[in-house]
Design brief:
Length: 209
Amino acid sequence: MNIERIVVGQLETNCYILHNNKRETVIIDPGGDSQNIIDKINKLMLNPLSIILTHGHYDHILAVPEIKNEYGIPIYAHRAENPMLENPNLNFSSFTGTPISISAENIESLTIKSMFDADLMHLPGHSPGSIGIVVNNYFISGDTVFAGGNIGRIDIPGGSSKQLSESIELILQLPDNLILLPGHGGRSIVGHEKKFWRQILKLLKDGLL
């Protein structure tokens, strides 16, 4: 299994392209610069099968319509994210001048495990349907947690400090040797970040964040 990263859009979102030895491919969080993503896929002669969204904010979905039209592939997200995906005001795309409404299939119906031996985690807090993906020795975290001890915002519609606390507790159970691939910024090692996430968890539980 290989992972390609393309940094896209004004907020420099990490779009990840997963592909196996059969060239089967899933595109995670195509948040902008659709032509760059398409060019990369075509250059590698990959066969896109689906789009996966870690959550529904505009900086993770802006290129979805173009990618879907180019390859005719389905979109998957957690079912709790559908209200945000379908509403340009909730996914904030209406404020970009390019309002987007997306219908996604339930991520739980996607057979990603058989293609990539991947496990999905429901990690609400930054948004109700945020997910993480554990694949091989990688943890794709979306905007739930980042390198450097940072976390996704909870002071926006759909954010919840209680849910984020519970999600971080789940993340703290992951193996230390996993490579963290966040929705923004550089990679890290899960074990290295845990000390920061434990501090953040305490602040969340004490009501200080």
